[in-house]
Amino acid sequence: MLSYIIRRLILMVPTLFGIMVLTFVIVQFAPGGPVEQMIARVQGTATDATARFSGGGSGDFDASSFESDGGSSNSRYRGAQGLDPAFIAELEEMFGFDRPAHERFFMMIGNFLRFDFGESYFRDRKVVDLVIDKLPVSISLGLWTTVLTYLISIPLGIRKAVKDGSRFDVWTSGVVIVGYAIPNFLFAVLLIVLFAGGRYFDLFPLRGLTSEGFADMTTAQQIADYLWHITLPVLAMVISGFATLTLLTKNSFLDEIGKMYVMTARAKGLTENRVLYGHVFRNAMLIVIAGFPSAFIGVLFTGALLIEVIFSLDGLGLLGYEAAINRDYPVMFATLYFFSLIGLLLGLLGDIMYTVIDPRIDFESQRV
């Protein structure tokens, strides 16, 4: 297993490189880069997305020194007509666009290898500090949601498989279908209306992960306050996230229950629990457990985005989204690098979990 892990770790290098190359090339053709964002801000035509962080960052120059002279800069940037070419050149140098694209790319990769992710264009902070600040929010949402989803879905899926076709199976299938059909952000809105002072009850906070004065609380109070804040966001994500895993668990068990080795175990007089959890569980859970890393990644980096917005939780999903809108390239590429690396590592963890659940699986004899 050790040699397999080493091979997988080595293969992560070209995989990460390919992801970064593809993304970098796509971004070069996307309109509205950071230079155009700054031009729009100077011209007074910036949208809310581009002007959100106008209080700091790269705007440490005096834009009034480059006011329109009535001429044309003949710039390739949209909206730059009439601006002093020296101003455009200063912007290009500030954002590194005075260098060829390939040179910028290899400089970025070199910095990433040293874990130097640079500074945000518009937040006046180091990217690594931004990620560290927002990581606890996303990790909290991702872990709680994934763990609770598995704790609910696996027992429910097994029960549905054992009671296949019964009244219990029918009405729980209705609940699963409703959970699958309705997006998590609609559940979030419903929970706010019902329990966060939207219309009926005011039992839970509407925004943030902690209350004011959190640092002055005792440990017990901090734990209670944290759980109080995160209850509704996690509940909204679990309700809409358990459906697929429940059906996957049920179908996996149904497939295994009908096999010959199960009939043989029953014929030997083994109890139903011994058959289910001593024989069927190990085989049926392979595909379910292997999906844990991808489920966590899905919750952490995509599923939580709207939930973070609705409940004002400033996490990695919201950070990456705002960076893409504002063309904050250091944040965009750093978060992509970070997300991809975690995804690859969790994929490896999924393979390791395969062997833990079923030692008969041997990756050593397989080519990666």
Structural commentary:
By secondary structure, the protein is an all-alpha fold. 68% of the residues lie in helices and 0% in strands. The protein is built from 15 helices and no strands. The chain has helices spanning 2-29, 34-43, 48-51, 85-95, 101-113, 127-162, 167-181, 184-195, 219-257, 260-267, 272-290, 292-303, 305-310, 316-325, 329-357. Mean pLDDT is 77; it is low at 48-74.
Write the layout of secondary structure elements.
Layout: H1 2-29, H2 34-43, H3 48-51, H4 85-95, H5 101-113, H6 127-162, H7 167-181, H8 184-195, H9 219-257, H10 260-267, H11 272-290, H12 292-303, H13 305-310, H14 316-325, H15 329-357
SS content category: mainly alpha
Large-scale geometry: globular
Mean pLDDT: 77
Helix content: 55-70%
Give me the count of strands.
0
In quaternary terms, these chains amount to: single chain
- Helices and strands, in N-to-C order? HHHHHHHHHHHHHHH
**How would you characterize the largest beta sheet?**
none
The total count of helices amounts to 15
Give start-end ranges of low-pLDDT stretches: 48-74
Query: Radius of gyration from the CA trace?
Result: 26 Å
Percentage of residues in strands: under 5%
Amino- and carboxy-terminal Cα gap:
12 Å
